[in-house]
Amino acid sequence: MKTVYKRLKPKIYALYIQRGALRGFLMAQVALTGLFTLLTFVSELASVGTGHYGVADALLYALLLSPQKAIEVSPIALMLGCLLSLGAMARNSELTAFLAAGISELRIIRAAMRVIVPISIVLVLTSQFIVPPARSFADAHRSLALEKHGEDSAIWVTRGGEYLHVQAISASDEPRGIDIFRFNTSDALTAYIHADAAVILPGGTWELQNVTLKQIHSEMFVTQKLPTLRWASITTPEEMRLLTQPPSALSATALLHYIRLRRALGDPAPLYEGEFWTRTAIPASMVALVMLAAPFLFNLSRSGSTGARIGVGVVIAILYSLFQQVISRLGLVTDIPLMITALGPPVALILFGAWLLVEARQ
């Protein structure tokens, strides 16, 4: 019995810290998500009055995007939660009491970090099952209310020597405003096809309607007008559905599926790979920002203004978020592996936070 008690007793402080960190995280998460949802709503007010788009539609759109916003702000929300809740413990000398009881700073930090596991699980489930349908419904409802269904869903697909541009997708998921550019092995344009619409037939073939076909013969365009023309599409209906959604609105499994599909065709998808690795790096960013918060927490009871220290921590968190976005975009235009650009900043910040903690203890 004594052995069991000794094993359970050290967990009491950990549960106390975890409850405080989780409570602070939820408060910060609600505040930040609410702030960005409000900003989205204010931005949407500019479209009110177009078509049947009203204030209620703008509010609904902003609310439907809030789960995605919650995922994006979660690392900063966790840091703010730790600074607020554990900062209160530091001001009340509770952290000092933990240290006096022989509980090291590392164990306190480790206890706070344990909340990352349940938070990450909730974020993964939200990203997988809530964000995609919410974003899809939000975009469809917005386009319908604005009376421009599909106008925001233009896509480009390239495969082999053909380039496909679809200006819009109709309510029945049919392509509208189709442009096809065909190049030879010397990258010279050999044909251009424009069609007002297309019907997707079984097997993936498109029946182009009201077609203008321009072919180059002896450096001259030969133009034909055709009522219909069958074309072996370079894309699939499934890929079309994926391409009409921004990468951030897709589930992790959909991202992986599309990335593997493009790789199998020898056609990389950097935007989708970047989104996948950015999402994968969220737990690492949480660890990094908690590590960064630790030196500020343990210095609260020694000297300096509490508000100033928390303010510095918040500024660093915001700068880190901006830096991470810049590095992620850099990976899209350079040969730096996207995994490195996504995971590099949090790993660097973890090392920086560890160095700050060592310096603070001296």
TrEMBL record:
Top-rank taxon, per record: Bacteria
Per the UniProt record, which residue ranges are transmembrane? 21-42, 73-90, 111-131, 276-298, 310-330, 336-358
Matching NCBIfam families, A to Z? LptG_lptG
Lineage runs: Bacteria, Pseudomonadati, Pseudomonadota, Alphaproteobacteria, Acetobacterales
Q: Give its localization.
A: Cell membrane
Membrane topology of the entry: Multi-pass membrane protein
For this UniProt record, the keywords arranged alphabetically read as follows: Cell membrane, Membrane, Transmembrane, Transmembrane helix
- This protein's major location comes to membrane
Q: Name one GO cellular component term.
A: ATP-binding cassette (ABC) transporter complex
What protein is this chain from? LPS export ABC transporter permease LptG
Which terms does the UniProt entry file under GO BP?
Answer: lipopolysaccharide transport; transmembrane transport
